[in-house]
Write a structure and sequence with these properties.
By secondary structure, this protein is of the alpha+beta class. The chain is built from 9 helices and 9 strands. It starts with a helix and ends in a 13-residue tail after the last helix.
Length: 256
């Protein structure tokens, strides 16, 4: 418990926990983008949080993902807070535990990560991801939204019908480096947790590293479908940005 209080005594470490609570499973690079410090300093803070069991990590390929572990915080609540106002705070604790279980269930579901390098700028890649006309060229659907946090977005067919095959909400919008949206079928159960797609755009000299993370997929079959779909769409995106034209064949129609 001493390690927990030491970890919580620092403002930066509390902010790291807030960021993980907002979006669990982030890489060091993702966390550093919102901190005014070097990667080395951020790593030291994360090490203190890991030692206190407030943060756990999981390797996914070359990336190391950081997850919030709320157990020590709940122990503090039960030991020093709950016994003073037991009835009211116990009810709040149950609500909190249910929310944490839902978040853990989301983290346990399959996820897909795809990285592609594009000869471009972050601004041009951002524009290609959010412009309805450009998405229609390389995706076969128009992504339509005002892209403000909390706004809806639609993945509309380009046949003039106006039919949306995917709908969702803009969760985070930080142009030109990060866009997070939820994904669901238009007729999906409103009580079901939608999947979530994160676009991370990082400049590297004259090229851009685009990382797409699709989380909370229903099962391995949906993950397999997402893997094939994202590979095709992002290859078409790369071709359009670098050459001015999409691939000569729609890659998602080529037999696997």
């Amino acid at each position: 418990m001493d390690k927990v209080f030491k970890a919580l005594a620092d403002q930066t470490r509390r902010y790291l926990l807030d960021m993980l609570h907002e979006h669990n499973g982030q890489t060091l690079g993702e966390l550093c983008r919102r901190l005014e410090m070097t990667r080395q300093s951020a790593t030291q803070h994360l090490a203190v949080l890991e030692a206190a069991n407030l943060v756990s990590t999981v390797r996914r390929g070359r990336e190391k993902l950081h997850y919030l572990n709320p157990v020590p915080l709940n122990e503090i609540q039960e030991r020093w807070i709950d016994k003073f106002e037991r009835p009211r705070l116990r009810a709040l604790s149950r609500v909190k535990q249910q929310a944490e279980k839902a978040e853990e269930a989301m983290a346990d579901k399959p996820a897909f990560v795809y990285v592609i390098y594009i000869e471009s700028t972050p601004e041009k890649v951002w524009h290609a991801l959010t412009d309805a006309d450009l998405t229609a060229e390389y995706w076969g659907h128009s992504n339509v939204s005002d892209w403000q946090v909390g706004s809806p977005w639609e993945h509309r067919r380009t046949d003039g019908s106006g039919t949306a095959d995917v709908v969702g909400t803009v969760v985070e919008n930080s142009p030109p480096t990060r866009l997070v949206t939820t994904w669901a079928a238009p007729d999906a159960d409103a009580a079901a947790e939608p999947s979530r797609v994160t676009f991370d755009i990082q400049p590297h000299g004259d090229i851009v590293r685009l990382t797409v993370t699709h989380e909370n997929l229903a099962d391995e079959a949906e993950r397999t479908a997402a893997a094939g779909g994202w590979a095709a769409v992002l290859s078409n995106l790369k071709s359009l940005i670098e050459t001015g034209s999409p691939l000569p064949q729609q890659p998602w129609l080529i037999p696997q």
